[in-house]
Amino acid sequence: MRQVLRKFSLLFSRRRIRAERRRTDAGRHTPRMPSFPITLAVAFFAASCCGWLIFAGMAHLTGSSLGIWPGRASSLPPDRLFDLTRSAVTAAGLLAGIFAVVYSYRKQKIEEATSRRADADSLGTRYQDASGQLGNESATVRLAGIYALSRLADEDSTQRETVCRLLCGYLRMPYDPVGPPAGEREVRHTVIKVIAEHLQDPTSDFSWCGYDLDFSGAVFDGGSFAGSHFVGSYINFSGCRFVNGKVLFDRSTLEDAHVDFGDGESMPAFFDGGAVHFIGAHFKAGAHLTFIFTQFKSGALEFGTSYFLPGSVVTFSSCDIGGAIVSFGGPVWGGAHFLGGSVSFDGADLKAGLLSFMGTSFSGSHVSLDEITQTGTAIFFDAASFGSGKVTFNNAKLSNGEISFGLGADPEAVVSPWPLSRPVRRRGGAARRLYGWVSGSGAARTTRDPNPD
Question: Tell me: the pLDDT tens digits for 68-92?
Answer without folding.
Answer: 554 444 555 655 665 666 666 666 6
